[in-house]
Amino acid sequence: MRRAYYKNNWIAALLVAPQLIIVFTFFYFPTAQALYWAFTLEQPWGGGNTWVGFDNFKAILGDSLYWASIWVSIVYAIGSTTLAVGMALTLAIFADRQLSGYKVYKIGMIWPYAIAAPAVGLAFRFIFSPGAGIMMFVNQMFPEIWNPVENGNQAMAMVIIAGAWKQVAYNFIFFLAGLQSIPRSLIEAGAMDGARVLRRMRDIQLPLLAPTFFFVLVINITDSFTDSFGIVDTMTAGGPSRATNLMVYKIFNDGFQGLDYSGAAAQSIILMLLVIALTFVQFRYIERKVHYT
Amino acid sequence: MANISIKQVRKSYANSEVVHGVNLEVSTGEFIVILGPSGCGKSTLLRMIAGLESVTAGTILIDDKPVNDLEPHERGCAMVFQNYALYPHMTVAENIGYALKVAGLPKMERATKVSSVAASVGLTEFLDRRPGQLSGGQRQRVAMARAIIREPKVFLFDEPLSNLDAKLRVQMRQEIRRIHNRIRATSIFVTHDQQEGMTLADRLVVMNKGVIEQIGAPEDVYHHPASIYVAGFIGSPAMNFLSGQISATPAAAMLANGERITLPAHVAAAHDGKLAQIGIRPEALSIVPAGSGSFDAVFDFAEELGNARLYHFRFEDLTVSVLSADKPKVKAGVPMGIKVAMDAVHLFDAETGKRLLARGIVLEPVPA
Ligand SMILES: Nc1ncnc2c1ncn2[C@@H]1O[C@H](COP(=O)(O)OP(=O)(O)OP(=O)(O)O)[C@@H](O)[C@H]1O
Ligand SMILES: [Mg+2]
Asked: Looking at the complex, does the CB of residue A188 fall below 8 Å from at least one CB of chain B?
């Protein structure tokens, strides 16, 4: 194949410009802004920002509320990822077995991913509302058993379920594609070798799904750190008593409600570094173990 | 060790039938080759025996027990797949030993068996490798070993050699036959390569479009093809076909241009007046000066085969090929005489395509 190239560089520039503008406007510019804020502090009585070095970071890392937020984020990441991956895998396995109606089901499964996070949050807020619907019924049977407005663990569970529900569809697509790319003859060979359905799943399908599994895991964990804002915002607003005050939500809270731009900027830099590091570590060290050639 | 009995077996996919009532008896220890063109239903038949495909109608019996409703592993068959179907995430040893592991054999025993089977197919040095690190031939051996280790009653092969290069194919073919001679498990081998079929089979089953055209020893099938289809499929270079009408006096097949191919008198008498397809193998023809053969044909071109040449002639709108080791003087566009060895003529009914038989003559198939 011949490479197409342009004699006039300005045409090329024009073609890549939209992409560059988008990346610049929505990534580099805000990142630069955040960096600026993270290393400076607004003077109390006006007069611009002063350079403070790592003071903002030191302040955050010395703040027990920040560590609490990290802990909550980790709980959320593990909880929602486990649930979303587990559910999606189970559903994909059933769909892969092509039980009747699986085509309708396959399409039906895709939709939740198209719903915006705040909408998911709102929907689940109604579902889990202690005073309405199914939870009201539960509360009537066992008084006071469900009240996420006061019980932090319940609030966390609720947020995890909503977050996972939204992610299941995305994971499902990958798992189903992964399962369907396993050659049929391998499963048939397993059947000839005497392995029944569950045994084949354990010994053949799941190991071969490992690369997909790993990919989905990375995406889910990083997403749970960055993408959970909409759900927390609509469902719990970080409460009760900061029980669901995830890192992204705390950034928003400190920055736009507490007007501590520098603190929020420093937090967002930390979060960004954390996500980059997580992705790097996962791809670099874990991926090696799950590829077969 | 087991005999297999296939009775009126049919297979349909969504209203279209692809196997139309197949009957086949395989005796214990026999090596059967199912031969047929792509899409004729060989794999489907084999997979029904294996239990990987349901049987639409009819019965399959292994050791006189109907197996239609048994799971694959309950049938005692081992299968070697076309693409080998090795587990890519397991080592060679794990691949070979997987069936034993599933069966719950203790680790020590398994290891002993794996190493002895691996040794028998020359895989000892590769036990710790993954399939991805093996050559095609080595993978093929792993697939064989995986089947052998189960000591199956029945071996099923679905074109196991078609992914190998020509030389390796011949080598593996011989190895498969050697293994069979050693363990004598009943085997069914599917291929579309007629040479593979001829060389491996105790008995050859020629399939076409979901029906069996002929069952017989390779030799018989070659010398006494039951139909035009089999005659054209078996043998390389392929058989020539001419159409003509059989006449009793003179005893001959009259070709369209009035020339005639002499037939044995009793054969001609038995089918007087019949429209026939006359099949003659290229090696049964010889090139003689124009006018002195059975008919004249115009020389077109020749193919060098090393030990002989294949000469192509034009006759009417047909091509006639002659295999000859001596080098006749031919020139493109110049007619030559083609001489037919009389006892090598195969006659087929022009309408049904079935072989025309005459009692007590050389054309009669040898009883199986
Ligand atoms: N799952 C299926 N659904 C519908 N039709 C099928 C299916 N599997 C096979 N067929 C059809 O059945 C016929 C026989 O297929 P089969 O695989 O047995 O052919 P084959 O003789 O093994 O050919 P090849 O030499 O190419 O492997 C083909 O026409 C094929 O299209
Ligand atoms: Mg096939």
From this structure: yes
Residue-wise DSSP of B39-99: TSSHHHHHHHHHTSS--SEEEEEETTEE-TTS-GGGGTEEEE-TT----TTS-HHHHHHHH
Least confident of A47-56, B220-229, B340-349: A47-56
Cα separation, A167 vs A138, whole angstroms: 27
CB pairs under 8 A between A and B: 65
Which atom of ligand 1 is closest in space to residue B45's alpha carbon?
A: 18
Q: Specify the residue for token string 């520098």.
A: A262
For A186, which of B85, B133, B150 is closest by C-beta distance?
A: B85
Q: What's the CA gap between A2 and A13, in Å, rounded?
A: 20
Which residue is closest in CA terms to ligand 1's atom 18? B41
The protein residue whose alpha carbon is closest to atom 22 in ligand 1 is: B43
Q: Is B366 exposed, middle or buried (0-12, 13-18, 19+ CB in 10 A)?
A: exposed
pLDDT exceeds 50 at position B368: no
Residue from the list B81, B103, B133 with its beta carbon closest to the beta carbon of A185: B81
pTM: 0.79
CA end-to-end span of chain B: 22
Give the atom of ligand 1 at the shortest distance from the alpha carbon of B42.
21
pLDDT tens-digit series, residues A159-197: 999 889 888 888 988 898 888 889 989 999 999 999 998
The beta-carbon contacts of A62-68 under 8 Å, at least 24 apart in sequence, are A65/A242, A65/A250, A66/A250, A66/A267, A68/A242, A68/A245
pLDDT tens by residue, A2-57: 566 666 788 888 888 999 999 999 888 988 888 888 888 877 777 777 777 787 78
Q: What distance in Å separates the CA atoms of residue A228 and residue A250, rounded to the nearest whole number?
A: 11
Residue among B12, B42, B20 nearest B205 (CA): B42
Q: Which ligand is nearest to the CA of B48?
A: 1
Select from B78, B81, B102 the Cβ nearest to the Cβ of A195. B102
Computed on alpha carbons and rounded to an integer, the radius of gyration of chain B in Å comes to 25
Q: What is the set of domains in chain B, with CATH numbers?
A: 4-229 (3.40.50.300), 238-349 (2.40.50.140)
- What is the structure's pLDDT at B28? 93
A79-134 pLDDT per residue, tens: 999 999 999 998 888 888 766 666 777 777 777 777 888 888 888 888 888 777 78
In the structure, ligand 2 is a single-atom ion and the residues with CB under 5 Å from it are: B 43
Buried b / exposed e across A136-164, counting CB within 10 Å, b at 16+? Answer: eeeeeeeeeebebeebbebbbbbbbbbbb
Mean pLDDT, to the nearest integer, of A274-286?
A: 80
Ligand with minimal distance to B16 CA = 1
Which ligand 1 atom sits closest to the C-alpha of B37?
A: 25
Does the ipTM surpass 0.90? no
Taking the CA of B11 as reference, the closest ligand is 1
CB of B348 within 8 A of CB of B227? yes
B98 at the A interface (CB within 8 A)? yes
Quick one: which of B153, B159, B158 has its CA closest to B183? B153
Phi-psi region of A213 (alpha: psi -120 to 50; beta: other; left: phi over 0): alpha
CATH 1.10.3720.10 is the classification of domain A56-289: yes
Rg (CA), chain A: 24
